[in-house]
Amino acid sequence: MESTIWTEKYRPKDFSEVKGQKDIVKRVKAFVNKKNMPHLLFSGPAGTGKTTLALVISKQLFGENWHDNVLELNASDERGIDIIRNKVKDFARTRAIGNVPFKIIYLDESDALTKEAQQALRRTMENYTRTCRFILSCNYSSKIIDPIQSRCAVFRFKLLSKEELIEIIDKIAKSESLKIDEKTKQAVYEVSNGDCRRMENIMQSCAAISNNITEDLIYSIASVARPKEVKEVLDLALKNNFKDARNKLLDLMLEYGLSGVDIIKQIQKETLNLDLEPRKKMMLIEKCGEIEFRMVEGSDEFLQLEALLSQVALAGIK
User: Fold this and answer.
1) How far apart, in whole angstroms, are the C-alpha atoms of residue 242 and residue 236?
2) Rounded-to-integer distance, Cα 62 and Cα 168, Å
3) Is residue 1 pLDDT above 80, yes or no?
4) For domain 21-156, is the CATH number 3.40.50.300?
5) Torsions phi, psi of 89, nearest 5?
6) How are the residues of the chain apportioned to helix, strand and coil, as percentages rounded to the nearest 5?
7) Domain 227-316 coded CATH 3.40.50.2300
8) Less packed terminus of the chain by CB within 10 Å, N or C?
9) Is 47 exposed, middle or buried (0-12, 13-18, 19+ CB in 10 A)?
10) pTM of the model as a whole
């Protein structure tokens, strides 16, 4: 097997290969065809194609010379004002090579920039519009100051749907000669939750162990408990078998190496599948939120999970 990271190996090379963001691709492609575009702000969850689309834009605009005309920075590494004043300004003030009248500066994770750096960036975007375009990528657009947002065309990326993710899984399985059935594909989708990067990393880890990828292997590699096992814990608590529910939950956490915050997210999902009246389900989901907050604030994880199971047991009493 090649020693390449699949997230790079299967990264789309042109617009037709980008999955899950049809409307965004259509609008961005129109900019590229005209060889003119505003500053762009890509916002959305991880693994949805923000960096990929920025690279596709660069390659489509500049062809083989794209490296000379694109500056790619990760703002979480270099997040201070100096990086904007020096590195970005020096690159922005020189003209592009080729027949496109501007260069591109791609700032990944730009919501990690300090407020001072964002103010300096605002001025740079204003002053060097003739020679440079910015593509900013972030998880939360609310962390980008309003003056920058108003200078950009904002594109909001969404998580990939099940059909789109399975299409990519099938492509990888065919290319890498992997055996993967429908149940396992469903498991991959559940553990990746629409994040394409996470899906590719899980599949590559599984492929290193076996060409026959099974549901068990997926849950084991992803360090996620099976939904069925989490539901068993909740069902035991509902039947007032509190001690068995607690022991089963502890076994699950030890077997999969899960933290309290990991397991509570799975409990919250499975709460909706319980045989309870809607009002009690809503009450339990509220408790999940409260207990997750307590964990994040530093409370003992297992004690908080026991408290949650006790609430499930009480909800099961008629």
Assistant:
1) 7
2) 27
3) no
4) yes
5) -65, -45
6) 60, 10, 30
7) no
8) C
9) buried
10) 0.81
Residue 3 has pLDDT above 60, yes or no: no
Domain boundaries, the chain: 21-156, 162-222, 227-316
β-bridge mates for residue 137, sequence order = 42
Cα separation, 86 vs 92, in Å, equals: 10
Helices 196-209, 162-176: inter-axial angle, 10-degree rounding: 30
The one-letter amino acid at 182? E
Q: Would you say 165 and 190 are in contact if contact means Cβ atoms under 8 Å apart? A: no
For the packed helices 278-296 and 301-316, what is the interaxial angle rounded to 10 degrees? 170
Residue 117 φ/ψ, nearest 5 degrees: -65, -40
Query: pLDDT tens, 231-262?
Result: 999 999 998 898 999 999 999 888 888 888 88
Q: Compute CA 31 distance to the chain's CA centroid, rounded to the nearest angstrom.
A: 26
- Cα angle value 288/274/289 (rounded, 5°): 10
CATH of domain 162-222: 1.10.8.60
Question: In whole angstroms, what is the distance from residue 63 CA to residue 57 CA?
Answer: 10
Partnered with residue 179 across adjacent β-strands are 212
How long, in residues, is the chain? 318
Distance CA 123, CA 17 (A): 35
**The pair of three-digit structure tokens given for residue 284, joined into one six-digit string:** 């339990």
